[in-house]
Each structure stands twice: as structure tokens, then as C-alpha cells.
Amino acid sequence: MAARAPVASGRLLLGFRKWYYNLCGFNKLGLMRDDTVYEDADVQEALRRLPENQYNERMFRVKRALDLSMKQQILPKEQWTKFEEDVHYLTPYLEEVIRERKEREEWMKK
């Protein structure tokens, strides 16, 4: 029984994550998780490094979400971003930018 506990808790955690993902509401506007990140200097640099097609797709999603928000509407359910389809497209670029910034700060200390 003890060997099965991590599997059960893993499924429980996944269920909770899906529930919370849908509760947040950004998926009902067609946004992905990385579309909702606050744009500080690091995020702006990461966005600058995105491939052009990913940047254009992001801008389309953001503009569509703004339009829907202004109209106080949401997308039809079949167009919502699903938990399984949401990819962290910005995260690798953002981690690289933060790592470079910290390295630069550490270099400047010496």
C-alpha cells in the first residue's frame, strides 16, 4: 500500500493542477500560461529572443483575449486552451535571460 501512495498522490496533484488551471480563467480567453507572465525587463528580453512565429502567435492570443475581455465574452469551449496543450514556450528563454543576468551581476561584483 505504501508503494502506491506516491502514484495516487501524483494523480491527485495532477487533478488539482488541472482544476486550478481551469479556475484561473485565462484559458477561456485562449491564452497560455506564459502569456500571462508580468513583463519586466527579463521577460521583455526573453520575448525579444523568441522566434518570430512564436512571438506572432503570442501577440495574436493576447490581442484576441483583450478583444474578448472588452466585449465581456469568452471563447467557445472547444477553443479553450487545454491543460495538456499548454506549453511553456517562453520559460526556456526566460531562464536563460535570468541566468545571464545573474552571471553578469556576479561578474560585476568582482
UniProtKB/TrEMBL annotation:
It comes from the Eukaryota. Component of the ubiquinol-cytochrome c oxidoreductase (cytochrome b-c1 complex, complex III, CIII), a multisubunit enzyme composed of 3 respiratory subunits cytochrome b, cytochrome c1 and Rieske protein, 2 core protein subunits, and additional low-molecular weight protein subunits. The complex exists as an obligatory dimer and forms supercomplexes (SCs) in the inner mitochondrial membrane with cytochrome c oxidase (complex IV, CIV). Component of the ubiquinol-cytochrome c oxidoreductase (cytochrome b-c1 complex, complex III, CIII), a multisubunit enzyme composed of 11 subunits. The complex is composed of 3 respiratory subunits cytochrome b, cytochrome c1 and Rieske protein UQCRFS1, 2 core protein subunits UQCRC1/QCR1 and UQCRC2/QCR2, and 6 low-molecular weight protein subunits UQCRH/QCR6, UQCRB/QCR7, UQCRQ/QCR8, UQCR10/QCR9, UQCR11/QCR10 and subunit 9, the cleavage product of Rieske protein UQCRFS1. It is found in: Mitochondrion inner membrane. Component of the ubiquinol-cytochrome c oxidoreductase, a multisubunit transmembrane complex that is part of the mitochondrial electron transport chain which drives oxidative phosphorylation. Its main location: mitochondrion. It comes from Xyrichtys novacula (Pearly razorfish). Keywords: Electron transport, Membrane, Mitochondrion, Mitochondrion inner membrane, Respiratory chain, Transport. InterPro entries: QCR7, QCR7_sf. Signal peptide: none annotated. It is a peripheral membrane protein. Transmembrane segments: none annotated. Pfam families: UCR_14kD (PF02271). GO terms for cellular component: mitochondrial inner membrane; respiratory chain complex III. One of its GO terms (biological process) is mitochondrial electron transport, ubiquinol to cytochrome c. Coiled coil: none annotated. This is Cytochrome b-c1 complex subunit 7. Belongs to the UQCRB/QCR7 family.
